[in-house]
Amino acid sequence: MIKVGIVGGTGYTGVELLRLLAQHPGVSVEAITSRSEAGVKVTDMYPNLRGHYDGLAFSEPDAGVLARMDAVFFATPHGVAHALAGDLLARGTRVIDLSADFRLRDIAEWEDWYGQTHGAPELLEGAVYGLPELHREAIKKAQLVAVPGCYPTAVQLGFLPLLKAGMIDPSQLIADCKTGVTGAGRGAKVGSLLAEASESLKAYAVSGHRHLPEIRQGLIAAHDGEVNLTFVPHLAPMIRGIHATLYGQLVAEPEADLQALFETWYADEPFVDVMPAGSHPETRSVKGNNVCRLAVHRPGDGNTVVVLSVIDNLVKGASGQAIQNLNLMFGLDEHLGLQAPALMP
Ligand SMILES: NC(=O)C1=CN([C@@H]2O[C@H](COP(=O)(O)OP(=O)(O)OC[C@H]3O[C@@H](n4cnc5c(N)ncnc54)[C@H](OP(=O)(O)O)[C@@H]3O)[C@@H](O)[C@H]2O)C=CC1
Ligand SMILES: CC(=O)N[C@@H](CCC(=O)OP(=O)(O)O)C(=O)O
What we know:
The chain is an alpha/beta fold. The protein has two domains: 2-147, 3-Layer(aba) Sandwich (Rossmann fold); 151-313, Dihydrodipicolinate Reductase, domain 2. The chain contains eleven helices and 13 strands. It has a seven-stranded mixed beta sheet. Strands 2-1-3-4-6-5 form a six-stranded parallel beta sheet, sandwiched between helices. Helix 7 (150-164) runs parallel beside helix 9 (211-223). The longest helix has 15 residues, at 150-164. The radius of gyration is 20 Å and the shape is globular. The two termini are 34 Å apart. It binds NADPH dihydro-nicotinamide-adenine-dinucleotide phosphate and ligand 2. The site of NADPH dihydro-nicotinamide-adenine-dinucleotide phosphate has 31 residues, from helix 1 and helix 11.
């Protein structure tokens, strides 16, 4: 059994890790932290987990306890993993960080977007960006994985086949994205109240969102050149889900069919589902599930390619992808803990 700890166990991604790991045959959750709920039994706070974690209680983060684990997930706000990861890695514990602490390679850019001093620049070189569809081999050898952000997962998976094949103009990319309210975390915020977020749809951070540099970094590396991306996130009245509508401009008449390009590109990917031509994937088709569903369209056979990409922000956009990374890091079957189909309706 692989012994794991979770720092930040009361938040939405923390409890989603617990839900998914309850079905993982090779992992035992031995430590889970919360400063505000220390001493509370996990099943008292989350009765859906009764029968799975009956002996487990939240405790204050303790480096000594966490270092006894084989792996520790950080499901915490930005900056927390910076403070604890170095010590754990030095003591042989692998770290899987769901926050953005190790996602950006450029320290100055990270500090600019996250408004804090980078707390562990010495660890960056060894950090692997945990998008298995791009970095599977590096993840297998990694001690420290930076799990991609939710929007960056949906957007990169949708654009990658077209950019890698040189089919679209990298200077004219648009990502129009919608997310559910769990993307904002469990902490109380006026914008997440039922009366504020339901029956309404609004864009936010149009002039700049912290996922922009992360998406740009991935796309630049993928096609080995600059990209110009307009990224507009929206808050949609749903609990989970990301829907990304991606627009690219063809540089020439494609020799191969776009549908075939996507199907070939993702043929061996266990968690990317290219839907049949003409499909319109729905966020509910991935609810609770680690899959990214994609559809590619070329309206009116014109110059614009439209890719539709849906994920569950808490699963392929966070905790499911984190477990996919754990499976790869420990040489396990990549599907373990991630096999249940989506909830529909
Ligand atoms: N929600 C989402 O859809 C996604 C989230 N992420 C990222 O995952 C991380 C967690 O997100 P989410 O679960 O939504 O967050 P939440 O706000 O729901 O939960 C945060 C958790 O971190 C703990 N925490 C807060 N501050 C500290 C601290 N200083 N030291 C130790 N623990 C702390 C909290 O417990 P307590 O305060 O009691 O200790 C709580 O359990 C964030 O970095 C987020 O950006 C990534 C992709 C998607
Ligand atoms: C609704 C809402 O606020 N969504 C969050 C989504 C980001 C997120 O979840 O965090 P990561 O950077 O760790 O992926 C936001 O826009 O900041």
